[in-house]
Prior knowledge:
The chain is mostly helical and 210 residues long. It has helices spanning 2-9, 11-37, 41-53, 57-66, 70-80, 86-104, 108-140, 146-209. The longest helix has 64 residues, at 146-209. It is rod-shaped.
Amino acid sequence: MTFHLMEKGGPVMWLILAISLFAALLFIRRALHLHRAQIKTTDFIRGIFTIVGKGNIVEAVSQCEETPGPVAHMLRMAILEREHGPERVRQAMQEVGLAEVPRLEANLGILLTLAQVAPLAGLLGTVLGMMESLRILMELSPQVYAGDLSGGLWTALLTTAFGLTVGICIYIGYNFLVSRVESILLDMERAFGEIMQLLPRLGDSNHHAS
């Protein structure tokens, strides 16, 4: 039944299907990436500072490297730059944060574009379907039956419906990913504040290690 509808919709239906499959692949990849990037920020930071407090700097850095996500990268940089003072730590974490934002937002623009292109492709199918109906109307006039025009009308209606459906679904997925990115950015801001508050402990651990 589905294949029959795809055939009735014409070539534009297959174009919209390709758009939907590509968008689904992008969405799954980004969703998995963002899921891995979001960690329990407060617990992770306090756990790392506990390790640092015991003088195990190498272990703390190693755990930060093995943990995915921007918060772990920021904390790793704070530990590595701890000897250069709070201002340098602040600057280093800000640099890491700025570098992480494009990675978090990667391919979101493509998803938004696909969400806009799918309904337009459906509109193209509508125009082509109506043109086909008009061509048949001119060829068979004056003896035209409803069945003669049904092919073009099916193309017009199916491509419109399919294009709108795909576009809506992609846009919902896009907004879901944007909300995840915003949540991670908030985690980064909170982590920045917590690290700066706990920063004196890094200095203390440095004295203990020496």
